[in-house]
From TrEMBL:
It holds the Pfam family WD40. WD repeats lie at residues 63-104, 146-187, 188-229. It comes from Candidatus Mucispirillum faecigallinarum. SUPFAM superfamilies: Quinoprotein alcohol dehydrogenase-like. Transmembrane segments: none annotated. InterPro entries: Apc4-like_WD40_dom, Quinoprotein_ADH-like_sf, WD40/YVTN_repeat-like_dom_sf, WD40_repeat_CS, WD40_rpt. Keywords: Repeat, Signal, WD repeat. Residues 1-18 form the signal peptide. The lineage of its organism: Bacteria, Pseudomonadati, Deferribacterota, Deferribacteres, Deferribacterales. It comes from the Bacteria. This is Anaphase-promoting complex subunit 4-like WD40 domain-containing protein.
Length: 374
């Protein structure tokens, strides 16, 4: 009996030492995501936005972005511009090349639900509970007002051509708006529960939806019946995204699942279900070379962002963030990243409260600060 106890004790000690220990007392949770071919983008409950370089893991903090949680982020097709919307009813347009704010649009008390930029960046659409505003980004003049969404708007997406807008409602309806005619031309019935996420493919007018009925539906625009629907999940589908051709879908669920699904074959290409916590939001660039998602809500102890690489088995990085510091734990078992490390954090394997400088000097070689995925 003593021998068995000793073995169990040693196993527990080894596992405890192997797992990174982070102080979660001031961590935020990821409330929205987006992705360009260069950046994984995390919008947080604290109102800040963090851009993570997908190759180097360098962290760029856009602080003081919003005073309340960032609930929606959209990027243009080439990744030059970004729009963010917060629960503070502030919409911000960003230049990602210059890393600076361009414009703020504020409509107090309107209750912004979602924001989307057209692929070419010429138009901005802002969804409120029952109306969608259109802005021309050249001079930010309000050029359109779309109404008739009777059951509330919770998600929106615009096709690459910029002539069709889809809006998801609280009762499962998807409203198809012809932006040239300025009217709703069709309504798809996608279950009877809230539609959380919508996305168009680039090459074809294929639309994907996900919502509270745990089901993903895929439509050919112009046909109200889905060409495919499936339910792989035990809880709500929080986020859906299509690749450029509409053959692959990145999907995140409240049951903790994040997958890339091959629509043609019905096979799961990449999957991560190994950790507890909801997927709060999920995104991917149209190439699907990586997936970005948040894990853990405000009520769960462990909260972090993940960058997962489906073509490189087991390769991922976690972003842990406190109010004044960020830290990346890579798949290779060392720390990297950029941030303000004024406060003390728990060290990688020893659980001691140490500064970032102490951690780097004691436990990590400087030549390992750049992540190598090959």
């Amino acid at each position: 009996m003593k021998k068995i106890f000793l073995v169990l004790f040693l196993m527990c000690a080894f596992n405890a030492a192997a797992e990174p220990k982070i102080d979660y007392s001031k961590s935020y949770y990821v409330s929205s995501t987006a992705a360009t071919e260069q950046y994984a983008i995390f919008g947080s409950f604290d109102g800040n936005i963090r851009l993570i370089d997908a190759q180097t893991s360098d962290i760029i903090l856009l602080d003081n972005a919003h005073k309340k949680p960032v609930i929606s982020i959209s990027v243009t097709g080439e990744g030059r511009y970004m729009a963010s919307a917060g629960q503070d009813d502030v919409i911000i347009i960003w230049d990602l090349e210059k890393l600076k704010e361009i414009k703020r649009i504020v409509k107090p008390g309107m209750g912004v639900r979602a924001v989307v930029l057209s692929k070419n960046g010429e138009k901005l659409y802002i969804a409120y509970p029952s109306v969608i505003y259109e802005y021309e980004t050249k001079n930010y003049v309000n050029t359109g007002l779309y109404e008739g969404y009777k059951n509330g708007i919770y998600s929106i997406s615009v096709n690459k051509k910029g002539n069709i807008l889809a809006a998801g409602s609280k009762n499962g309806d998807i409203y198809i708006t012809d932006l040239e005619k300025g009217e709703i031309t069709d309504t798809y019935s996608a279950g009877r529960q809230l539609i959380m996420s919508l996305d168009f493919a680039d090459d074809k007018d294929i639309l994907i939806s996900g919502g509270y009925d745990n089901t993903v539906r895929i439509y050919n625009v112009g046909k109200s019946r889905p060409i495919k629907e499936f339910s792989l999940f035990k809880d709500a589908v929080k986020s859906v995204q299509l690749n450029k051709s509409g053959t692959l879908a990145a999907i995140g669920s409240s049951d903790g699942t994040a997958v890339i699904y091959n629509i043609s074959t019905g096979q799961v290409k990449g999957q991560t279900i190994s950790e507890d916590g909801e997927v709060t939001s999920l995104s991917a660039p149209k190439s699907m070379k990586f997936i970005v998602y948040g894990k853990g809500t405000a009520f769960q102890e462990e909260r972090y962002g993940v960058i997962s690489y489906p073509d490189k088995k087991g390769v991922f990085r976690k972003l842990y963030s406190m109010q004044e510091s960020d830290i990346i734990i890579s798949e290779r078992g060392y720390l990297t990243g950029r941030g303000s490390f004024g406060e003390y954090i728990s060290s990688y394997s020893h659980g001691n409260k140490e500064s970032m400088q102490d951690i780097m000097e004691k436990y990590f070689r400087q030549d390992k600060l750049r992540v190598n995925l090959d």
